[in-house]
Amino acid sequence: MKRLLIVYFSLLGSLVLATKKNLIIDTDLFSDVDDAGALLLAATSPDVNLLAVNVNHPSSYSALAASAILAHYGKGDVPIGVTRPLTDDTFLDTWYFRLGEYASKVAYQFRGGKLRWGHAEEDAWGPVELYRKVLSEAADHSVTIVSIGFLDNLSALLNSTGDAHSPLPGRALLSRKVTELVVMGGAYPSGKRSWNFWGSPLSGPGAAAHVINSWGANTNTSDGDGTNTTTTTTTAAAATTTTSTTANTTVPQLTFLGNDVGVYSLAGERLAAEGPALDPVGMAYGWYGYERRARPAWDPLAVLYAVRGLEGQGKTGLFRVGDVCEVGCGFNVVDWEDGGNRWVCGGVVDGGGREGSRQECVGRNQRFLRLGVTDEEAAAEVDRLFLEGAWAAARGKLRVPGLVPSTPGTPVGPVTTMCYIQ
Ligand SMILES: [Ca+2]
């Protein structure tokens, strides 16, 4: 009997491991507090194997706050990268003069994890090297990347060349190891100046346009950005690996979560009010929110989608695939000048990425999401998981792995003035 039980629990353990999602989070963690909420969810979800966190805002406080948050929730061993050159900038709300700064406070008051206070430069990985190390060590097609900020780190990864971690160039390495990239940003079918697509202090709209416009494009001639990169072929037959330096060229799924998914799902107020007294993310929502601590849940919802996928779509699922194309597939195009975006439908279009190019949507593997529940239900689910994760960490309890069913609770108050810093 004892032996049977050992076998049973071994099998159970295998199943549990098999259901965990390998996540890498790429976050700005600076100008809006929902990034902190997203890290809370990723760090406390029993369904996540958090491989790394890359920070795409070049403030040392952003990196240190990520380290502090992960350490608080028991994930202090997760490696952290940050884009360079680092500054000691802190957030100042020059739009509304009502939003507070939280990153430096979290970084100092809850310091811990991989990065020592005052040593972000020495302790943090370069984001490209961290990507390359973690991806090279992962099983093929086993990693989900969640981009909840600017796309500079991902753009740099795509431009990277072989190194000690892998002989593959960046795009080929990503195509081999990543199964899905989830990008919070844009509006669908079209929008202007989505923060994550134009607000990068390092590149403006350039990084977002590079990553998105070149995703799964026919790159026999160019990426659509004028830069020649690895040729990607979208046919399954061509996906066979022939040498150690040849990529499995399957194009990973690229899923967008736009402004509408989360803008009216206000979360964080309950965590700040009902969570543990010394919870870094609950306090961050308090510091950030001025008179209201609930914020649009863009980034936490992006993490939730990355973990759950389209589970329960059409029934109880939080998300469904958006559809604006009458025929065939579509893909996203980001304007290189202003970061606006538009969803292009159809089989073949002219000038999809840049003038003069002909680009197909087939094989680009892109889609965008809509909420499958009400805004209030989505917010309630985020709040519920915030509280569950924060209290579990505070009490030092282990949570039972397994997908947690949605149980929408009390909506978090009315919508008030909000801004579009994501
Ligand atoms: Ca963000």
UniProtKB/TrEMBL annotation:
What are the protein's UniProt keywords?
Answer: Hydrolase, Signal
Check the UniProt entry and state the signal peptide residues, or none: 1-18
Which GO molecular function terms does the record list?
hydrolase activity, hydrolyzing N-glycosyl compounds
Superkingdom: Eukaryota
Q: Which residues form the Inosine/uridine-preferring nucleoside hydrolase domain?
A: 23-309
Q: Which family does it belong to?
A: Belongs to the IUNH family.
Q: State what protein this is by name.
A: Inosine/uridine-preferring nucleoside hydrolase
Organism of this sequence: Chaetomium fimeti
The upper taxonomy is: Eukaryota, Fungi, Dikarya, Ascomycota, Pezizomycotina
